[in-house]
Amino acid sequence: MSTLKSIANHTYINAENKLHAKLGLSDNPKEEDFLFGEYKFKIGEKEGQMTTPNKEDMRRILKSISEAKRQADFVLVSIHSHEMDGDNLESPPNFLKEFSRKCIDGGANAIIGHGPHVLRGIEIYKKSPIFYSLGNFIFQNDTMTRQPAEFYDKHDLNHNNNVAELFDARTNRDSKGFVVDEKVWSSIIPVWKMKDNEICDLTLYPIELGMELPRSKRGWPKLKKRHDILERLQRLSVPFGTNIQLSEGIAKVEL
Q1: What are the angstrom distances between the C-alpha of 105 and each of 33, 41, 62, 143, 252?
Q2: What are the residue boundaries of the structural domains of the chain, listed by start?
Q3: Residue 236: how many other CB atoms lie within 10 Å
Q4: How many Cβ atoms are within 10 Å of 109's Cβ, its own excluded?
Q5: pLDDT higher for 190 or 248?
């Protein structure tokens, strides 16, 4: 902690934090906490990172769920989150697990996660499904017709270049990035049934999005009997106590 404080004093990484506190725009941190830029540190028994949902966001979303519950038969919560647990993109962060369970406690019937572009495990919590990430369904990043100037700057291009040249530069002509990561181009479609507000059947259908196709055709989902996709999801769901059984190109979640 003393090293962090020394670095902060020499780099002025907390200059904005101190100015906001001085102007009354933010509260001073608690005595046991230390702000280091946008991160908060405190001395603990063991090292690690802890994440929790923003309290005001959680309150606001739970209120929306409560309203929706009174207006609809079923409530689905969709959340876009890129964050991960440690350095494993396939593992959801702690705040997302806490958020999802609180939403179901508040009346939601299912949580549908997306954002990291890859599949994550499935949890059945209080007879309701949590899909921590369904990966991609339609993924056509490289056929957009316009991009912001800073995107061109990032790849040493300018207004004289067109969008095709930009995407060629970003992927080094389809040799790096998303285009070479098979996990980005495969996913599942979940189909489930509910009875008395509880899930009673959950079937998973694997899809692929044409990783090997040219840019103009890539990104359309197609049903495929691919056990490797289902086996990956099976493995990712084990930490949540979810058992998935495979049979003839589809999978069933044991409930």
Answers
A1: 30, 30, 9, 40, 25
A2: 1-48
A3: 21
A4: 23
A5: 190
